[in-house]
Specification:
The chain is an all-alpha fold. The chain has 19 helices and no strands. Helices cover about 65% and strands about 0% of the residues.
């Protein structure tokens, strides 16, 4: 292999490991050191060393373990330079013996054995505002970028960056400990943890930007953590609900793109390619959650996903029930995302004009939701208002989106023909 080929192989390996393992590596170093900033800095140093050493030494058999060990050793070196950290260093030495492979987990009074899930609970401290807990955990442990988190919260990247800085400062100044509370105190943090896991899954299910529609590793990790949480808290219906929701959505992954990598809308998907085992498990989990008679937002969303999963054909979908479920969800979660999805369901049940009226009634808060102009464009297209539809498609194309979504929107715009012609700029939930 040439030096150029080796360099490209290393770059891809580092990039893939960063995308899939960043959060786990940072989580491990935070557990060992108790220092958030130090863990992030040392993880960054480890990736920099990989880019320097792997072209010469080769990519390790277990890249994540190599990076974790390197980051941990870097953290120990940093702590040794500070005499005031002697006590912490002794604690780290004990913890290091407990996980000698660099990626292991310890057990504490909480009963949580998964290193990453333990730290998600740690970060979701009730002293922080719920939004700050979720955002900070997504950034540090799930590995999402500030821009991706900002889009999830319908705010600007600059605003989200400030919130993350404030949250870290509060943790430091208030002396919030980096430890998981005892098991009987875990329920007070579960709402934030569920938010982290689902937003993590959602970014994997439909990436907000980049070349791929789906980030498979992010989906798999979110499902794994949700499954661990459901096992830890089997009597918490929302934990069962969020796992059911993920499985029912993820079951469609094999049909969301065609052979050429182009996006396929939900109504056009080949349902024989859906993962029936995942659907069966998701439906069973939803039934188990609902038997506890404490319905919450994730159970309602799972019920909506179940309507789609249970319909043998697109035309058999019970859109009237879905619209009613979205209306119920809006009473619990009054967000632009819910309102836009309710408008889509109403459009499918009552016609595009009814859906468009709901879209046009949305408040200014919904304007930052990246799928809004795509939804409006689709409804206008169905009504034959092609020039207005084209304007909305162009607005949608001006916003961040994955490449498959962008190509889909471009095709839709082209299909409108000369009647809607105009200068292009610089989604609907399609399944």
């Amino acid at each position: 292999m040439t030096a150029e080929t080796i360099g490209e192989a290393v770059r891809v390996a580092v990039q893939d490991t960063y995308r899939e393992q960043w959060g786990r590596i940072v989580a491990t170093v935070i557990r060992l050191t108790g220092d958030w900033d130090l863990a992030e800095e040392c993880a960054q140093d480890a990736f920099a060393q990989a880019l320097e050493r792997w072209p010469r030494d080769g990519v390790p058999h277990r890249p994540a373990a190599w990076l974790t060990t390197t980051a941990r050793n870097r953290a120990l070196d940093r702590l040794r330079r500070s005499a005031v950290e002697a006590a912490r260093l002794r604690e780290v030495a004990v913890l290091t013996e407990e996980s000698s492979d660099g990626i292991g987990a310890t057990v504490d009074a909480s009963g949580i054995t998964d290193d990453r899930l333990r730290l998600i609970f740690t970060c979701c401290h009730p002293a922080l505002a719920l939004e700050a807990r979720v955002a900070l955990t997504l950034r540090t442990l799930a590995g999402l970028t500030t821009a991706e988190i900002a889009r999830a919260f319908l705010t600007s990247e600059a605003t989200m960056a400030k919130r993350l800085v404030r949250a870290k400062r509060k943790i430091r100044h208030a002396g919030i400990p980096y430890r998981v509370p005892p098991a009987h105190l875990l329920p007070e943090r579960v709402h934030g943890v569920l938010g982290v896991l689902y937003l993590m899954f959602n970014e994997g299910h439909t990436a907000s930007a980049g070349p791929n529609l789906v980030r498979q590793g992010l989906c798999d990790e979110a499902i794994r953590l949700a499954r661990t949480l459901a096992g830890l808290m089997p009597d918490e219906p929302e934990a069962l609900g969020v796992l059911a929701l993920m499985l029912l959505h993820h079951a469609r992954r094999g049909a969301r793109l065609d052979g050429a990598g182009e996006l396929v809308t939900l109504e056009e998907q080949d349902r024989s390619r859906w993962d029936r085992a995942a659907i069966s498990e998701g439906l069973a989990l939803l039934d188990e959650a609902m038997r506890r008679a404490r319905p919450g937002p994730y159970q309602i969303q799972a019920a909506i996903a179940a309507c789609h999963a249970s319909a043998p054909r697109a035309r058999d979908t019970d859109w009237t029930r879905i619209a009613a479920l979205y209306q119920r969800l809006a009473g619990l979660v009054p967000s632009a995302v819910v309102q836009v999805n309710r408008a889509v369901a109403v459009a499918m049940a009552q016609g595009p004009a009814a859906g468009l009226r709901l879209v046009d009634e949305l408040t200014a808060d919904a304007a930052t939701y990246r799928l809004l102009p795509a939804v409006r464009a689709d409804l206008l297209r169905r009504l034959g208002r092609h020039r207005e539809a084209a304007t909305s498609y162009r607005e949608a194309l001006a916003l961040p989106a994955s490449e498959p979504e962008r190509r889909y929107l471009t095709r839709r715009l082209a299909e409108l023909g000369e009647e809607a012609a105009g200068p292009p700029p610089g989604v609907v939930e399609c399944g």
